[in-house]
C-alpha cells in the first residue's frame, strides 16, 4: 500500500498550513473565545474556506463538492488543529455535511448542503441526548405526524456549532422508526441554549417544542440509523486527524521550551530525565500518526453491504480513537507538566491545546467506548 501523498494532496496540505499560519494564529483564537457576544468563529474566514474549496473537498460533485475523499478532509483538519483554528470544520463539514450528503436527495443537497459547502451557511448535527452514551439509536425525541409533515418534541444535548448553524440535522423517532430532519435554526418552537465547552469552542443544547417540519425536510435517501452510524464514524476519524495536529504541535512547543528554558545555569532540555519524557511523547505522537494514516485510508471503505470492509473500517477508527484518548492525553499532560508552573495558566498557549485534546478525545466516542467496540468486533470475528 502506498502511503505517500500525491502532488495535489501535498499542495493542499501546504496551502492549509500557510493559511493557518498567516490567517489564524493562537491570539486570534483567544480573541474569538473571549468575545462573549460573538459566535466563536469568523463567517468571513469561513466563506474564504468555502471559496478555496476546502468545505466541499470530501463530497461528490453531484452534491456540490469536489469529488475527492475523507483523506483530503483529514489533511485539512490536521493542519487546522496545529493552530486551533476555531471555524466549525468538524461540526459543519464532517458531522452536518456527511449526514446531509448521505441521507438527503438531490433537491435537499441543493437546498441545504450546497450553501454550506460554499461557506455561505454552516451546519450542525443534533443526535446526542441525555442518555445516548454514544449510541445514536437511543433517541427519545419524537416526530409526531401532522398535516403536511411532523412536529418535533424533545431535547438534544451538546450539539456542536448549534449556537451558530443555519441548518440543523435532527434525529427523532417517527411511527415508522428513526428518521432525520433538516430544520432551520430559527424554526418556531426551537430553543437553543448556547454554552462554551472546555476548549473554548461553542455548542448548544436544543429544546424542541412542537417544531413543525414539512415532508420535504425529512432526509430519507438512506436509513437514518445507517446514516448516523456512518457519520459518527467519520466524526470520530475527524477528531483523530485534528487531534494528531494538536498533539504534534504540543510536542513541538514542548521541545522548543526545553531548548530555551534554563535552570541551574543549563537548558532544562539537557537533563536526561526530561529527555526521556520528551521521547515518550514523541513515541505516542508517532503511534497516533500511524493509526491516523490507516483511518484516512479506510474511512471511505464499506457502506455498500460489505460487512468485512465495514468491520475493518470501524476497527481502525476505534483503534485510533483509543490511541487519541490515551496517547493523546499522555502527550497533553506531559506537555503541561514540562512547561512547569506556567503550563497551568490561561496565558500559556499549551493549556489551550491541552483543553482541545480533552474535547477531541470525547467527540463521537471516548477511549472506553471505542475500546469496547474494538474488542466486541474482534470477538465477533473470532467466533
How would you characterize the overall build of this protein?
This protein is α+β, with helices and mostly antiparallel strands and 383 residues long. It folds into 3 domains: 7-121, Butyryl-Coa Dehydrogenase, subunit A, domain 1; 124-219, Butyryl-CoA Dehydrogenase, subunit A, domain 2, CATH 2.40.110.10; 224-382, Butyryl-CoA Dehydrogenase, subunit A, domain 3, CATH 1.20.140. It is 52% helix and 16% strand. The protein contains 11 helices and 10 strands. The chain has helices spanning 7-23, 26-34, 43-51, 70-82, 89-103, 106-117, 224-260, 272-298, 307-338, 349-362, 367-382; strands at residues 123-126, 142-146, 149-160, 167-174, 177-184, 190-196, 202-214, 218-219, 262-263, 266-267. A hairpin with a 2-residue loop joins β2 and β3 (149-160).
From the 3D coordinates, which CATH architecture of the largest domain would you assign? Up-down Bundle
Distance between the termini: 29 Å
SSE class? alpha+beta
Relative strand content: 15-25%
Q: Segments where pLDDT lies below 50 for 5+ residues?
A: none
- Counting structural domains, the number is 3
The total count of helices amounts to 11
CATH class category of the largest domain: Mainly Alpha
Label this structure with key terms:
Butyryl-CoA Dehydrogenase, subunit A, domain 2; 3 domains; Butyryl-CoA Dehydrogenase, subunit A, domain 3; alpha+beta; 4-stranded mixed sheet
Structure, briefly:
With 383 residues, the protein is of the alpha+beta class. The chain is 52% helix and 16% strand. The strands form three sheets. Strands 1-4-5-8 form a four-stranded mixed β-sheet. Strands 2-3-7-6 form a four-stranded antiparallel β-sheet, with no helix packed on it. The protein has a two-stranded antiparallel ribbon with strand order 9-10.
